[in-house]
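We close this part of the discussion by returning to an individual protein. The sequence in question and its C-alpha cells are set out directly beneath this paragraph:
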Amino acid sequence: QVQLVESGGGLVQAGGSLRLSCAASGRTFSTYAMGWFRQAPGKEREFVAAITWSAGSTYYALSVKGRFTISRDNAKNTLYLQMNSLKPEDTADYYCAADSGRYHPIVTMARGYDYWGQGTQVTVSS
C-alpha cells in the first residue's frame, strides 16, 4: 500500500509561482513512475506531468510545458511540481499519483496509476 500526501497549494496571482510537494510512504517509491494530474471544477481530470522512477525522463502536457517542472527526491520519498508563470486557467485541484509497477515507463492516462493523493487546491487570480 502506498500513501501519498500533497501540500503546497494556495492562492497566487497570475504570473506567480507555487511549488507542490507529494510525500510518499513505503520503501519502494524509488521504483515508481510518478505523475501530477489536475481537475478544475466541472471538468475531467487531466494529465499535467510525469517522471520516471530514476528521473531520467519527464513528460509534460502542452498547456504547462515550459512553465512547470516535475522532479523527485528518492532519498526523501518526495515528488515535486514547480509551477511558474501561473495563469488563471491553471486553477484546479492538483493530485499526485503513483504507478506501482516497478520501473515502468511514463504513462499519461489516469488509469495507468494505482495510488492517488487527496489533492491540493491551487487558485490563480487574474
